[in-house]
């Protein structure tokens, strides 16, 4: 559980007591690659903390999968509507490789937030950071060239290119797989 604890404490100084209360409620699961753990249209009241492995979140648009997020070691994966609105969401979360995760129900988390303010503050800070990352992705899609988006992703998350299908990465960058291949081969974007 080293990756999860490290990432929690990276965002907020959670006490040993609060961490123990959280960890005691975790259920360890090993999920095969290519397994959908959150389904659009189905309520899923769990949060999955990833110890080892990687997931991608995606939505379906006109029958195509559009990758919206990647989660890796130390990150949490869940459906946002499931978590915040208590409604079935519009997104899928799929493992890209065998993934060891620890799940906990949203209800258990909510109860922990009431009894351990440092856990509530950690989740608040985590969600703030995720919101800012998502906002950055959105702004980059609107104002940066495909080449700039690619270069930024290679610096921010270089291991993603060894762990995720290039089609998923292209989708996340908002470009076609052919454009991504040209950028990688030529070092520049060709139309």
Q: Quick summary of this structure?
A:
The protein is of the alpha+beta class and 191 residues long. It has helices spanning 2-11, 16-25, 80-84, 106-115, 117-143, 146-156, 160-163, 166-173, 177-186, and strands spanning 27-31, 36-38, 46-52, 55-61, 64-71, 76-77, 92-95, 99-105.
CATH topology of the domain at 2-115: Jelly Rolls
Rounded to the nearest angstrom, the distance between the terminal CA atoms is 45 Å
- Strand elements, count: 8
Count the DSSP helices: 9
Question: What structural keywords apply?
Answer:
191 residues, Jelly Rolls, 9 helices, alpha+beta
Describe the structure.
- The chain is of the alpha+beta class and 191 residues long.
- It has a domain at 2-115: Jelly Rolls (Sandwich).
- It is 50% helix and 23% strand.
- The chain has nine helices and eight strands.
- It has helices at 2-11, 16-25, 80-84, 106-115, 117-143, 146-156, 160-163, 166-173, 177-186, and strands spanning 27-31, 36-38, 46-52, 55-61, 64-71, 76-77, 92-95, 99-105.
- A four-stranded antiparallel sheet has the order 1-8-3-6. The protein has a four-stranded antiparallel sheet with strand order 2-7-4-5.
- Strand 4 (55-61) and strand 5 form a beta hairpin.
- Helix 4 crosses helix 5 and helix 8 (166-173) crosses helix 9.
- The protein is globular and about 55 Å long.
- The termini are far apart.
- The mean pLDDT is 93.
């Amino acid at each position: 559980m080293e990756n999860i604890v490290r990432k929690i404490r990276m965002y907020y100084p959670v006490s040993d007591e609060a961490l123990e209360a959280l960890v005691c409620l975790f259920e360890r699961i090993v999920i095969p690659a290519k397994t959908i753990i959150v389904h659009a249209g189905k309520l899923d009241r769990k949060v999955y903390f990833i110890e080892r492995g990687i997931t991608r979140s995606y939505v379906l648009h006109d029958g195509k999968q559009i990758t919206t997020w990647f989660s890796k070691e130390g990150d949490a994966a869940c459906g946002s509507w499931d978590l915040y609105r208590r409604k079935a969401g519009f997104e899928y979360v799929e493992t890209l490789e065998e993934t060891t995760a620890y799940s906990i129900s949203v209800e258990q988390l909510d109860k922990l937030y009431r009894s351990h303010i440092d856990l509530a503050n950690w989740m608040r800070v985590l969600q703030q950071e995720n919101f800012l990352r998502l906002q950055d992705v959105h702004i980059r899609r609107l104002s940066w060239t495909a080449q700039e988006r690619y270069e930024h992703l290679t610096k921010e998350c270089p291991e993603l290119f060894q762990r995720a299908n290039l089609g998923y990465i292209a989708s996340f960058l908002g470009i076609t797989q052919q454009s991504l291949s040209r950028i990688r081969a030529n070092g520049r974007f060709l139309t």
